[in-house]
Protein 1
Amino acid sequence: MAGRYKFPVQRSKTAVHLLAVTIFILIVNIAFWTDFNHIVRYGHYREATRKPSKIDDLFIRKTELSPVANPHRHRFVSTLENKCKQKNVFLVVVVTSSPAHAKHRNAIRKTWGNETMFPQGNVRVLFALGRSDDAQVENAVQVEAKARGDIIQEDFRDSYRNMTTKTVMILRWAVTFCSGAKYVMKTDDDMFVNIKTLVRHLETLQREVDLSSGLFMGAIQTGVHPVRSPPNDRYYVSREEFNEDVYPDYLSGTGYVMSMDTVRRFYVAALMTPPMPMEDVYMGICAQREGITPWDHSGFTFHRFGFTVCTHSHQIVTSHHYTPTELLAMWEALQTSPTECGWLRSYFSILYAKLVKRFSMIFPCLFMGCGAIEE
Ligand SMILES: *[C@@H]1O[C@H](CO)[C@@H](O)[C@H](O)[C@H]1NC(C)=O
Ligand SMILES: *[C@@H]1O[C@H](CO)[C@@H](O)[C@H](O)[C@H]1NC(C)=O
């Protein structure tokens, strides 16, 4: 009799194990996979200090001329006024670049930033520069700007600690010369950006939810502490520049997208917010001030995402730390190889992206390269 009852007990043990494994796999899937290309809205700013306001051109001009906390009194050297004249501009990608990085710009022009890929002509890619102290470099920039017609420049000194000024220049340029565009993206010249994937996501989002307004999307950075020493660290911020112990949530400066109404709100907020050297943190401070909610998109990665043809042609939007030579080689591989991803590969690459994103919150220097500034 006893033997008769043993059997079902053992069977139910196996069932419990099976169930546990299934639940585990489900949780891993839900946590790391299913929302891969989805967006997490960071609702931390519900207590907005200001109501979203309709900011028209007159309000912007008035703010520019009034005595504000961050007067942006720089002269445009190059405005590219005609770059954005057509009505149908969907996306403008502005790449921050240092004057000496002609090689980086050329690699981007030949690869992911080649506008001719977009037959409707509704995507613009351009570079944002300050002035170089080196006369030779500055002359070369002027020649390049004339030849290529894709450089916007103001007369402030181009340096890592002046990045915030450059971002304000981008905002100013967009509201002044490109206010008809739907979206503006800011990224850097050592990035890979898959504009096609980004456009696809923006179009999908626009169909699903009304994203024509309020968009501020990228890779979220949350709970980041200011670096207080040593003073020559790339990320050093003094108490005078930022006095709290934790930054507000912000989006990594490696790549973020804004809808045009958000750009206008950011520009006005920036004029009224005292500057601090980390441009992406600064945008987070302005977002908090304006009540703009940052959205995290899993396709925006700020580390060097291991290159595979399938991930870079379908899944990720941004990936960091590429030399011009690497960009060119990657691009060639993307043009010549088949682009399908098997499910196993998709699964593990997505899992990897999510894990790295989470770990980088705990060990930022491992992925973002803290250390002294080399200029
Ligand atoms: C961009 O692509 C077009 C078409 O493939 C090509 O003719 C052009 O040379 C490319 N531009 C650059 C700067 O490589
Ligand atoms: C930033 O730009 C301003 C204006 O050109 C310049 O005076 C200042 O020295 C620059 N700051 C740094 C850290 O390069």
Note: DSSP finds twelve helices and eleven strands in the chain.
Protein 2
Amino acid sequence: MNPQPLKTISFKQDERNVFFHILTACNLSCTHCYINFEQHGKEPVSRDTMEEWLALFHEPKKETNLILLGGEPTMHPDLAHGIKTAKKIGYHSVTVDTNGFLFHDLLDNIAPSDAVLSFSLDGPSAEINDPIRGSGVFSTCTTNLRRAVNMGFKASLIYTVSRQNINYLHLMPELLHQMGVSRFFIQVIGLRGRSASTHESKLQLTPEEWLAVIPETARKTADLGIHVIFPKVFLDKDEVFECSGNVAENYFIFPNGRVYLCPLCEDFPVNAFRIENNRLIKNTGLVEKNFFSLNIPEGCVMNKLLQPGNLSYDETGRPVHRISCCLLKQEIRGNSTPNSNYSAKQPGDRPLF
Ligand code: SF4
Ligand code: SF4
């Protein structure tokens, strides 16, 4: 089966993507975890707040996609209620990003048509996955994923690539095929949170490593009929740079009421909006929006500020690669991949590049 060509997913103005972190707690402690209690608090949103904020961010004139995240969102006792509320309000699609533990019997409390379940796994076996995500996680995650698929749920899988697991990525397509996964989301390790403060240089990939492995694995996965999505990261010479903060509508909501437009800004108090008394308030002063219009030869400004290790320069001082917006994705579909109605713009298990 020949897959369709690799394609960049352009930003769409007629769609809104709402990334709602309903809590920051998690039962795991992955080595690349992005949770930041200092910036986003430790309190989950209440059931009432969940309902109110879901209504606040739904835009009936646009295709509004909801991605429910944490921490581990299935630890929230009202997750199933939130999913059903979102469907009732009219969200076009609902995706739950889970580490696979599926607390509170999620599969028995929602229907397959209510949400897509997006599982995270960082290796094709316990030997590779568990040193990154925790002992016993591979077994629990794959068991629950298979159960979900058997019950008729649509499942996707996120693999966060780093130096620790890039050499095993080629073993994923077969495993995904066996488990009945319909979409594979390849993510790249970020340089934030715990990964930034500890062993960043050991985890981060070079552009050459990324380009040598990821597109090829994506093609092999698509050969099996699986829809593959991965970040663009490096813009081609003739591609135009666009900041999604200027041309798309993505909201990253945290339980303490902070609302960001750019996921790279989430570790700083530069959120463009905040929610107060169930109203979306525009912040003033130094906020992320101030950075979005800066035009630099390196592409994304926040990448240059926060992750300059991604950049290299030629002898004339010009950047060798321009870095795309972290929300710009590429996709490749196998010929049998159905057109899905869920958002292709989720940051997944987070760190973007
Ligand atoms: S990366 Fe996700 S699953 Fe892992 S500890 Fe952080 S929130 Fe939990
Ligand atoms: S990652 Fe860069 S380009 Fe994308 S929204 Fe943030 S600042 Fe803009």
Note: The pocket of iron/sulfur cluster (ligand 2) is lined by residues 243-245, 262, 264, 291-292, 300-303, 325-327 (CB under 6 Å).
